[in-house]
User: Which sequence fits this backbone?
């Protein structure tokens, strides 16, 4: 697969050959769904917690006598049946992460890249460098028509990262940080030539 390479000013800078085994696959929604679900579950905090019967702040004294009241038999106010009593089988801190084989995660990344190439939302950039001025980069991004763009580079340039840090809708990742969720979430996927080489080396 051959794509044109552009510069930040919109001018052409040659072309690049993309591997069919990474950018030319038929995207499969089931694979992408499984990888995104693995990613989001792993990122979930899992810190939700309620107080159990042993943690609520009531006296443990028996609230009334066992027999003769005509009511149900109770020990103390911490019982789950009472208002502000302990919660029975409520959530406790835990990890929501589950396992997914490395080969499958790698396959998911290939399908995510292929989906952007198939829909024409993949842009190959010559290099992502800047003098650190946000205004100049914002103008270039607007002229290129990038909306919710994810830029992947081999090694992120410090000046470019500084210039893009205040731009709404522009995210930057090094090639090692490229992931399925962020790629699918973006409208335009921008990869530098160095980023393409790094991704192809990573996904061999």
Assistant:
């Amino acid at each position: 697969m051959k794509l044109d390479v552009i510069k930040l000013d919109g001018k052409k800078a040659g072309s690049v050959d993309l591997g069919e085994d990474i950018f030319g696959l038929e995207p499969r929604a089931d694979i992408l769904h499984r990888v995104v679900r693995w990613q989001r579950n792993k990122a979930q905090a899992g810190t939700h917690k309620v107080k159990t019967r042993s943690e609520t702040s009531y006296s443990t004294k028996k609230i009334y006598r066992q027999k003769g009241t005509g009511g149900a038999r109770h020990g103390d106010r911490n019982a789950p049946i009472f208002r502000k009593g302990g919660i029975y089988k409520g959530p406790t801190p835990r990890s929501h992460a589950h396992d997914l084989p490395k080969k499958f995660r790698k396959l998911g990344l290939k399908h995510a890249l292929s989906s952007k190439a198939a829909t024409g939302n993949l842009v190959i950039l010559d290099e992502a460098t800047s003098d650190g001025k946000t205004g100049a980069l914002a103008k270039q991004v607007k002229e290129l028509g990038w909306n919710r763009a994810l830029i992947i580079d081999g090694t992120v340039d410090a000046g470019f990262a500084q210039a893009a840090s205040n731009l709404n809708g522009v995210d930057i990742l090094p090639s090692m940080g490229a992931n399925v969720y962020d790629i699918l979430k973006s409208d335009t996927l921008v990869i530098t030539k160095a980023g393409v080489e790094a991704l192809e080396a990573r996904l061999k």
Observations:
- The beta strands are 2-6, 12-17, 122-125, 149-153, 170-174, 188-192.
